[in-house]
Amino acid sequence: MFVQTLTVSATCGIVVVILSLRKFANISWSEYILYGSQALIIFLNVISNLASTTCKIAIERDWVIVIADNYFDEKKKEIKKAKGDENIDNHDDDDESATEDEQTRKDRNLNLSNINSNVRRIDLQTSVLAPLIAGLIMSFVNISPKYNGVILSAIIFGVWNLFSYFIELSLLQSVYSAIPQLQKDLKKEENVQFAKKFNHFKNLYNGWFVYFRQGIIVLPSVALSVLYLTVLSFDSVTIGYAKMQYVGETLISIFQAVGNVTGIIGTFVFQAMRNKCHVPLKVTGLIGSVYQLSLLSVCFLSIWLIGSPFAVADKYFHTYTPCSSSNDTTTTPANRTSSNKFLTAPCSEFNYTSIIVLLTAMALSRFGLWLTDLSINQAVQETIPEKERGIVGGTVFFFSFESIYNIYSLLLISLSLSLSLF
Predict the structure, then answer these.
(1) Listed residue (316, 310, 4) closest to 161, CA to CA
(2) Element (H or E) spanning 249, and its range?
(3) pLDDT 10s digits, 280-313
(4) Measured between alpha carbons, how far is 230 from 374 in angstroms, rounded to an integer?
(5) How is 44-88 classified by DSSP, letter by letter?
(6) CB atoms near residue 367 (< 10 Å)
(7) Which of 127, 152, 203, 393 is the most buried (most CB within 10 A)?
(8) pLDDT tens, 227-257?
């Protein structure tokens, strides 16, 4: 968390310095400094993502399980104590866990489902609020022409990032202190063997063997990772494609908000299916997967609809009619004269059917995505032994199929930059 905070604040500082020294742009060596600063910003962003992923693995793949078990144990003790069972503290914890019945195990898993849903819901809610707050700040500081709004925004974000670090640190420290199980170390012998077996760069190599030993959760986690081999998400590539289809930033933001809201609804539905309807974890994952794939199929069909610039569809079905006022179908939004903030085509003959269907299906598919994600992640949490959680979590979510597929999709995109090949 410290590394993430430091790199983000450093990035904001570099942006402030670059924009403040723009008056030296005509000096011969300033171009190299600019390129070097941009490369440094990218490098710091990579380190920040690395630190963020590490923190995510530690909290969502380890802490959440321990916190859920601790909460359940405390609640169980309170219930037994209220019934007059004063001898509960005389039982050995190991013996009690060894004789734990099936109903107790189900109750533990349901409690874990609640915490997983709450954590994911908070994550999605911040995904909605953070861009909104950032946009309001950038709009507010740009009111006065006396000050550079971008510089002021970067200063505000950097200072807030440093300030919020201490808040996060105090909250994490309070949780760590309140849960004794989080402070429990593995046995010394296990630590020594673990360090010998997984040392330095051997982590990646040996991690794959540990991962494939997990059995039943391997295929579901691979299936979830395959979703990263796509452009059907609201990333920079899809946003760029939408802008080239004359969709305004405001409408794109609305679709992004709808996607986050449907994801939040998915967390509530997951919690209700597990607690109220007692739906098995496999069934919730299957329902989410079918829903997700159904809407992604609609995304695929959208490239064959009217208004699609897809080369094959246009060749056989004549789906694409570019604006006659421009022979360049890759005109940027900045060069358009339309006053409409939602649809910015400079001509009336342009058809939005294809891109609107695509964005709508993508936004609605987030419900199935997070329903599936919660199901598979909890299956991983319930299956993986405590001492192997970090290795498996790192393999699946860090050095994993997700990263491989993401890189592969970016390589494919770099080879097909034409609008007609999206």
Answers:
(1) 4
(2) helix 249-275
(3) 888 998 999 999 999 999 999 988 988 888 877 7
(4) 20
(5) HHHHHHHHHHHHHHHIIIIIHHHHHHHHHHHHHHHHHHHTT-GGG
(6) 23
(7) 393
(8) 777 778 887 788 888 888 888 877 888 888 8
